[in-house]
Fold:
Amino acid sequence: MLDTELDDVVASLRFGSVAEDWAALLAAQKAAQAAPPPPPSLIPMAVFPHEPGVGWCGVARWECQRKGCGWGVEMSVGTEPVGPLILPVDFTPADLSAAISAGAESRAAAQREALEHAFREHLREVHAEDPAGGAH
Ligand SMILES: [Zn+2]
Structure:
């Protein structure tokens, strides 16, 4: 790289961007704090039933929080196939990243729906509760 090229690179850098990024981060944090809390979920925090080791976090378990109930749902996590990515012919790295993120969000939504369904059914059938209120 020639010195003139290096000068061009240095000149293209956004000096002061750290302060701008920091301000944007603080604004986003403030907005998130001002936002209403998400609705309560039927799904409790996951636990990882297997001992630490190879693949130990590949299975997560969501357990019923009712006292004395040992019921739970186990699912594989992080091992789902990625599936096809739909990209424009002249895709950019940003398109690829967006497609991967959309796929991950779709799989997470499907898993969340399956868990909510399982917990809703369990609460209704075993604990005779109407989970329509959502709090768990
Ligand atoms: Zn239960």
Notes: The chain has a mean pLDDT of 82. The first strand starts at residue 59 and ends at 63. Residues 56-133 form one domain. Helices lie at 3-12, 17-34, 93-125.
